[in-house]
Amino acid sequence: MASNLSVTFTGLRFENPFLLASAPPTESDTNIMRAFDAGWGGVVTKTIGLHPVANVAGPKTKFLRASVDSPRLSMQKQAGTALHSSWNWELISDKPLDWWVPRISRIKQAHPTRILVASIMAGSGSDEELSHWQRLAAACQDEGADALELNLSCPHMDRKDMGSNIGKDTELISIVTQAVKEVATVPVWAKLTPSTTDIVVEARAAFLGGADAVTSSNTFPSLPLIDAETLEFEVNVDGYVSSGGLGGPAILPLSLAKMAQLAQAFPDKAFSGIGGVADFTLALNYFLLGCGTVQVCTAAMLDHAIGPNVITKLTSGMHEAMERHGWASVEAFRGSRRDRVVAHSKIRRPDAGSYRGGYDAEGYAASRAST
Ligand SMILES: Cc1cc2nc3c(=O)[nH]c(=O)nc-3n(C[C@H](O)[C@H](O)[C@H](O)COP(=O)(O)O)c2cc1C
Predict the structure, then answer these.
(1) Which of the residues are catalytic?
(2) Does the pLDDT of residue 352 top 90, yes or no?
(3) What ligand 1 atom has the least distance to the C-alpha of 300?
(4) Global pTM?
């Protein structure tokens, strides 16, 4: 008998716990319908906003590849390379809310059992911007969106009152989340930025504002490399570049470190893990730390735009692992490695008896340096 991949996350039933993350794979109704046909349990739409969106005059996303037999890292396509990461400076959806509204409704009518999450974004710092968040939330849920994901994390917005600039300010996180919760009739997920000192602080602010789940990670702030021959950034417009976001395999360990912090600080809260997932062996990391769902972007972009082979690998890998380990459902293994992440001093030393966590016998770190 095939194992049961279904999960209940923030009160919503998913046929499987895998979602396409908010990004180019989810930028249109045709893509989203194809994604559901391919088997994704859920989809988070490309972020929808009310302000005008104008992307840069050049490529918005490129992929960095590592050579197998040299230290070379480059965005140039070459044989014998493996994917290292994606780099992008794409803004949110350039389609207006009016474009999205009828499409959300059509997608839900065609796929009533699949979970459609609307990613939304507005500004901050004024009542008018807060009302934009509420307008976006109401419009999407009225058309049938099953949940809302607040984009508090885009690392390269052209406006300072948006994206990760909200996600770095605990007060704004709480205010925005609370404003959306005031009108929300569906679960609200807060997608946080990984580029802060301690993500637990921002997650607490989101939960205080009423968030039903936290999603992490968005891309990490980064620059493309400079080509050693041309001395130009591998992505640039007229020779200029600005900070963009790193995704894909390179960020998986970084994102896991954030998720371990989150899951340990809030063991009873819901988390959706993102970053570097391409098959079930990678997704498993997030589940073992405590996530209830996992989202994918970069791997799907490179697989027929919406990841038909990626979702097949995720679900077949999950079936296979559940059968091999005898797991009846995700709850049988979710969070089972969360408490294996401990302080450095708690890791066993060869001579455990005389080890005092880096301190000397008196219990303090006396300076041995001669003065
Ligand atoms: C080209 C591109 C566009 C993205 N646009 C959005 C967006 O509109 N909203 C959002 O919340 N995240 C956006 N993301 C971030 C992804 O949803 C995801 O968090 C990130 O890429 C990490 O996942 P990955 O390692 O599977 O790529 C974008 C990522 C890429 C590569």
Answers:
(1) 154
(2) no
(3) 26
(4) 0.97
